[in-house]
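Subject: sequence -> structure tokens, single chain

Hey, anyone have a minute? Need the predicted structure for the following. Not urgent.
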Amino acid sequence: MGLLNKSEKIFKVCSYLLVIVFALVTLYPIVYAFSVSISGKLAYESGLITLLPKDITLQAYEMVIESKGFWIAYANTLFYTVIGTAWSMGISLTGAYALQKKKLKFRRQWNFLLVFTMWFSAGMIPLYLNYKSMHVDNRWGMVVAFGVQAYNIILLRNYFSSIPKELEEAAIVDGANEFQLFYKIYVPMSTASIATVTLFYAISRWNGYYWSRMLLTDPYQQPLQVYLRQLIENYQKLYDESPVVLSYSADSLAYAIIICSIIPVLAIYPYIQKYFAKGVNMGGVKG
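Reply:
Had a minute. Here:
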């Protein structure tokens, strides 16, 4: 017993050390980006920034706050994230609820078609041409066209399938209809899975770049990630042409925008990350 306890302690110590190392490796890029964003030009260009900032200046953040384009892009990203996630969850929840019903006609075929979309794709060019033909080149087009992901529907469907059918039968005896079963039994009992899938959709919307860059032609409708990319492509020219002598480097502005763009995710994630393990594990129990 003593040998076993000693082995367990060694295992725990090694596990904690490994987790700490991974955490430090993960946090370092964020700390470095923040340090550069508030460091002076000379300190950064001299290679003095490794972890902590030097010659602290907030001029880069002042430029970000005063930038009209940044706030337009930020508002667009919030729109795509909030409205898009709500749209995606509405379709995913109702679709998952229907697909787990044994009395659904052609249930196996519908589920097969859902999984089939995860195995095969038409390809990038046909997808692009399809989106262009449907005029997916505006805010609502981006919200509707990228509404759901098959994997998330499967997670919710499997979680719904794990809910005891006795509860549904009792509710039906009491006179509940399908809508009441859905929002009074299935949704309240699936909080962990719903929170997990909601975060999946929200992160996907928040970080959306490729299709926004390819499809959106109006700069006033582009999200923050596209704005950041365009800034990185052009900031050196803008920096060199600035009539004012700036105390920060050209890279500091990009890092300042990166820090501003991840603040909402860092603020929200700790409150819902506890649902992750339970939501994913429960959603993957039954196929």
